[in-house]
Amino acid sequence: MENNQDLTDLLALDLGVNIVNRRPYAKEVFKWQDMDLLPHSSADTLLCEIFEWNGRNWRTTENNLIGFLFSGDLLNTVKQQLMNTPKHPALIPDFEFTKDSMEEYGLSLPSLFNIGVNGNINNAKSFSVRVNGVTKSRVTNIDSPGIEILRSYSQFTQDQSKTYRKNIKFNYLSTSLFYAESVEIFLEKESGVGLDVSFQTTNVEVDAKIDTDTKKHFVLKYSGNQAPFAAKFTKGKDFNIM
Fold first, then answer.
1. Are 197 and 186 contacting, i.e. CB atoms less than 8 angstroms apart?
2. Residues 6+ apart with CB under 8 A from 218
3. Are 32 and 11 in contact (CB under 8 A)?
4. What is the per-residue burial (b if ≥16 Cβ within 10 Å, else e) of 4-36?
5. Which residues contact 92 (CB under 8 A, 6 or more apart)?
6. Residue 194 main-chain phi, psi, to 5 deg
7. With contact defined as beta carbons under 8 Å apart, do 184 and 207 qualify?
8. Measured between alpha carbons, how far is 88 from 138 in angstroms, rounded to an integer?
9. Residue (of 50, 5, 37, 44) closest to 23 by Cα position
10. In this predicted model, what pLDDT tens digit does every residue of 101-149 receive, in sequence order?
11. Looking at the whole model, is its pTM more than 0.85?
């Protein structure tokens, strides 16, 4: 089940939606996979980062669970293991953020893919970001460092219950992170409208399919240490899955 059409058909069946001659929309994929956009894009965002939910948006606490569980050389070892957690195909179809969904999710959304928008998105005739080749890393109870983290977490909730309740129990942990192999930017605007896109080129291969005053189509292919764009969050009190 790795074919885009097969995955699209499965998504449509599970959600009860009709998807014909289009890519799945981001909100459909996110609902299907129970995943959420991260509030920021950073290559140093790791699994087990602790987030707060304010009822509308996610916000990082700037803490990671492993900072409460380990110290010294062991902390550095587990951190390196998290940084090198392998990424595997997420088995979700390539999908699209439309102009409307970008407004819904927040106009800063393109920055999650290191895309800068110079001007007001609302002035575009059409604007979309297509996400291709999504991969996922995750914490499990059968692989390192998940085994060590979960074992220590279980003990931590008992030995340091006050710290656990204050910082983790009612917050959320990033237990899966999602990455894009490449994204495509489509922008169409009226001539003379002050709206453009820019992007970082470090570890990014840029293919300009169309680049005129009124139409732009860029393909950005990422390599090196990627920044995740989405996560699956687990409430702290539900994290202990040993």
1. no
2. 184, 185, 197, 199, 206, 207, 208, 209, 211
3. yes
4. eeebbeebbeeeeeebeeebbbbebbbebbebb
5. 7, 11, 29, 32, 33, 134
6. -80, 75
7. no
8. 9
9. 5
10. 877 776 566 677 878 888 888 888 999 999 999 999 999 988 889 999 9
11. yes
Say if CB 90 and CB 165 are below 8 A apart. Answer: no
DSSP notation for 23-68: PPBHHHHHHHHT-EE-SS--TT--TTEEEEE-SS-EEEEEEEHHHH
2-50 tens-digit pLDDT: 689 999 999 999 999 999 999 999 999 999 999 999 988 788 899 999 9
Residue 143 host element (H or E): none
Distance separating alpha carbons of residues 36 and 231, to the nearest angstrom? 5
Place of tokens 């587990």: 78
> Which of 130, 110, 128, 95 minimizes the C-alpha distance to 15?
95
Backbone region of residue 18 per phi and psi (left: phi > 0; alpha: psi in -120 to 50; beta: other values): beta
**pLDDT for the residue numbered 240:** 75
Find out whether 92 and 132 touch, Cβ atoms under 8 Å.
no
Q: Is the peptide bond before 145 cis (omega within 30 degrees of 0)?
A: yes
Q: How far apart are CA 153 and CA 147, in angstroms?
A: 10
Distance CA 24, CA 77 (A): 39
CB distance 143 to 175 below 8 Å: no
Burial readout 75-93 (b: 16 or more C-beta within 10 A, e: otherwise): eeebbebbeebebeebebb
- pLDDT band per the 50, 70, 90 thresholds, residue 1: very low
Please give the C-alpha separations between residue 197 and each of 3, 103, 124, 147, 209, in angstroms, as whole numbers: 31, 16, 11, 43, 14
